[in-house]
Amino acid sequence: MFQLRQLRTFVAAAETLSFTRAAERVHLTQPSVTEQIRALEDAVGRPLFTRQNNALALTAAGSTLLTRARELLAMADDTLHAVKGDAPSPSANLTLVAPETLALTIFTPVMAAYARRYPDAGLTLLTRNSAQTLSMVQDGLADLGLLHGLPAHPPSLTSEVLSSDAPVLVVPPGHPLAGRQSVSINDLAGMRLGATAPGCTYRAYLEAFLQSGRDLPAISFEAESVRGLIGMVAAGLGVCVLPHLAFWSALPGPGVKAVRLEGAVRDLPVCLVRPARMPGREPLHLSAFAGMLREQVLGLDQAVPAVDMQHGPRGVAVA
Predict the structure, then answer these.
(1) pLDDT greater than 70 at residue 299
(2) How far apart are CA 271 and CA 277, in angstroms?
(3) For 85-169, where are the alpha helices, taking DSSP H only?
(4) Euclidean distance between CA atoms 231 and 253, whole angstroms
(5) Quick check: pTM over 0.70?
(6) Is the Cβ–Cβ distance between 230 and 170 less than 8 Å?
(7) Which domains does the chain have, with CATH numbers?
(8) Please, are residues 41 and 35 in contact by the beta-carbon 8 Å criterion?
(9) Quick check: 109 and 248 in contact, CB under 8 A?
(10) ∠ Cα 11 122 92 (to 5°)
């Protein structure tokens, strides 16, 4: 049977993917880390790590153990605090992952508030595309993930819709529609339309949107990033359709405007993805952060600044 100290060492190695960095985190020598990992592998009867091209990676058994080990360690900490009669503090390390849009607009403000409330907490923010975000949470390499859209996920994960992100039409300076409060899908007829690259969630969203009306333009230009796409719009290549948070996070230049787009297929859901656990078994630091995240999203329409980046802030509802 394995011991809690072995699980703590394993979690450190799994999160850093380095026995050297794991040794630094748990204040052991590297040979001690190696010895404890081998003891764990002997106990479970399966390898927990593989090494390819000098890079450490979790096996399937390692990914499963990582999820369970975090739960067991959290329960052990909670039990100790319950017996001692003091209140635990959500100060454990927390790894978050999301596409850049959601990382900047939603995760970072909550991380700042969380750090102020729990100054001993360790926080790591990773930016990945949607597929990689889902994979990292599933593999136990991140604790919480944010996604645009409703993800198809295995039973080991659970998703929660936190809010929705309204579509906007992004237009260059001086465009005839720049002064409108909102536009309809019919207003796109005859325009040059840009998009992110195939495989991007926003591209799939746009393609579904284009199927909702007649005489809508085909995609004329594309860019790998949201920032690059908005730069092309600013240069006069045409217009594009994006979720509002994607527009805001790209920090568009002066005069570039986002106009509310009516008649879209739907607003794009913003989902929180996390490991599926039995009720009451979620580690305290995850529950605390998720609660603050919900509070942040409830005030999202007040938090998002004006879409007119030239004339200063004003309130815009995004959900």
Answers:
(1) no
(2) 17
(3) 100-102, 108-117, 130-138
(4) 8
(5) no
(6) yes
(7) 4-84 (1.10.10.10), 94-158+276-303 (3.40.190.10), 167-266 (3.40.190.10)
(8) no
(9) no
(10) 55
For the stretch 12-34, what's the b/e string if a residue is b when 16 or more beta carbons lie within 10 angstroms of its beta carbon?
bbbbeebbeebbebbebeeeebb
**Quick check: 123 pLDDT over 60?**
yes
What is the pLDDT, as a whole number, of residue 90?
A: 65
Confidence grade of residue 281 (pLDDT, cut at 50, 70, 90): low
Question: Which tens digit of pLDDT belongs to each residue from 50-65?
Answer: 987 777 888 989 888 8
Residue pair 205/149 in contact (Cβ under 8 Å)? The answer is: yes
- Name the token pair of 303: 């938090």
Secondary element (H or E) of residue 42:
helix 30-44
| Tokens representing residue 222 in the block | 């594309």
Lowest-pLDDT choice from 84-93, 181-190, 205-214, 258-267: 84-93
Q: Are 259 and 177 in contact (CB under 8 A)?
A: yes
The amino acid that residue 195 corresponds to is A
